[in-house]
Amino acid sequence: MANTIQAIRGMHDVLPEQTPLWQHAETIIREVMASYGYSEIRLPIVEKTELFKRSIGEVTDIVEKEMYTFDDRNGDSLTLRPEGTAGCLRACLEHSLLNGQTHRLWYYGPMYRHERPQKGRYRQFIQLGVETYGMAAPDIDAELILLMDRLWKRLGIRDKVRLQLNSLGTIEERKAYREELVAYFQQHLDTLDEDSQRRLHTNPLRILDTKNPAMQEVVSKAPELMAYLGEDSLQHFKAITATLDDLAIPYEINTRLVRGLDYYSKTVFEWVTDELGSQGTVCAGGRYDSLIEQLGGKPNFAVGFAMGMERLLALMETLASIQPAKPVDVYMVRVGTQAERAGLRFAEALRAAIPALKLQINIDGGSFKSQFKKADKSGADYAVIIGDDEAVRGEISLKPLRDGQGQQSLSQQQAIGFLRDYLAARQKAVVNPLN
């Protein structure tokens, strides 16, 4: 027997019993985005490699080690997108969306990075991205945080996440700070691990974000960027925290919170959790005005964030209250030649009358007993039974499968009314939409 082909390492399947949780989260994301007036943009999975070299930088782990890059038949170097910000900005510049306009956009889909797979981090991962353009005021930075706060509440995980804030200032302010930081760490080279020594001359701010316990003391005594910020940067940051205070959104100022990419400036933020071990960051964002010029656009303003869905779903799964959604509400049992045709007609009538009803039909025939076993296994609350006699009379039998109540005979119209009321009552009574 030939060996079966398995999925590529780090690229996992989402099985039918897992998809209801994904669908639940995706539905809420769409609703929250719409409630803030954000529009969806759909972007290619493959982009020119140059886009990521110019945006992320050639001397980065992502570009040097993690991108899936290949030459197509025309000899062009193409890359499976490792992140969405560059592609979204490329689309806006290409279609002249930033000429004197403001935009609030979001996108959703797979990203690709060749790194060591672990729980919550895969080589193909699904990411939600939100990008805003053309707005300089700190209110838009705050709005993104408020949007996420509302999303956490809708998903039922607000008490599982904490907001951390920092300001990176302007590029000029950060350059002066960087010189001081390098000078400080050079005095402690024997304490720095190999990764930090490599970053010392490429991206020293990332050393502040180290998770190495042996380096925590030296990092804690490093100069703080906030002391190097000018008045404009400080006022921008204070305006954001004032808004959060006014709306009672709790936050922590984390002066060690940085970004791995140089185009970030002023506001940076993360939503973190203690529920997922080392994978504690659920969502990260910030302001990246300079990237627009870096990709050939005129000076403008940009703020956004990205969230990995696998990590979000792992966090939601820690909630004991979340149960998988019912895949089936009603299971149809058909026995007899006339019943099979009549059952199909009635099933279509039910779907037309009650679009939200999840109805599954027995297809493979079999006795009443065997079909009822399938009905019970489906998880449905009711079985709709049609035999040849019911088909002739235009009736059905309705049998509850969960509460022990008796079976009843109804006309097809009565059955439609009954099941419509059942579904409406269940939707009204259920607090958790996954139940």
Kindly list the characteristics that best describe this protein.
single chain, 435 residues, alpha+beta, 8-stranded mixed sheet, 5-stranded mixed sheet, elongated, disordered C terminus
Outline the structure in words.
By secondary structure, this protein is α+β, with helices and mostly antiparallel strands. Helices cover 38% and strands 20% of the residues. The chain has 15 helices and 16 strands. It has helices at residues 19-35, 49-55, 61-66, 85-94, 138-155, 171-186, 194-199, 216-220, 231-246, 290-294, 309-316, 337-353, 368-378, 388-393, 412-429; strands at residues 39-40, 46-48, 68-71, 77-80, 103-112, 124-133, 162-167, 252-253, 265-272, 281-287, 302-308, 330-335, 359-361, 382-387, 395-400, 408-411. The strands form three sheets. An eight-stranded mixed β-sheet has the order 1-5-6-11-10-9-7-8. Helix 1 packs antiparallel against helix 5 and helix 5 runs parallel beside helix 9 (231-246). The longest helix is centred in the middle third of the chain and has 18 residues, at 138-155. The protein is elongated. Residues 431-435 have low confidence and may be disordered.
